[in-house]
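Practice problem: predict the structure.
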Amino acid sequence: MPSTATTVLGADDIRRALTRIAHEIIETGQGTDDLVLLGIPLRGVPIARRLAATIAETEGTGRDGANLCGSLDITMYRDDLRSHPTRAPQRTVIPPGGVDGRTVVLVDDVLYSGRTVRAALDALGAIGRPAAVRLAVLVDRGHRELPIRADHVGRNLPTSRSERVTVHLDEVDGEDAVRIERPGATEGEQA
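Answer:
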């Protein structure tokens, strides 16, 4: 069945949302001395890099955004490995200084059921013991299955379960956009 897609965020909207999230992260943490951003592959990693660059530029501490940012592979911690076993593991990259005793902000593109974040928390626990863990997402679409909420949200997009939110980032897809894909009408419903 064909689907229709509506662009709900363009490149400028995404840039503004990430700038706001970066400032919220700074304000909530009272600075960046013990801050680590860990992107969840695939699209959480470039979002984390963008946030880290904005934070480093805003704070002007001389601390390079790359030293704030890493990635956290959650593949082996997912609860759907039996139904989708063909996932290729990604690299986990922890910034200098590790995560112990630091504030870790997990970064992802879309928050939906909460299962990806649960897997990320398990993966993070296997690496170390942060002082605090927060969550930043570009889009929160609702429909939680676990008691997980984001601390920093670029945009809340109420959706139905039949809809799909797709995030496109320049680093991965060649464009910046967020779209809602809706199932198309059946032949009998078309006007």
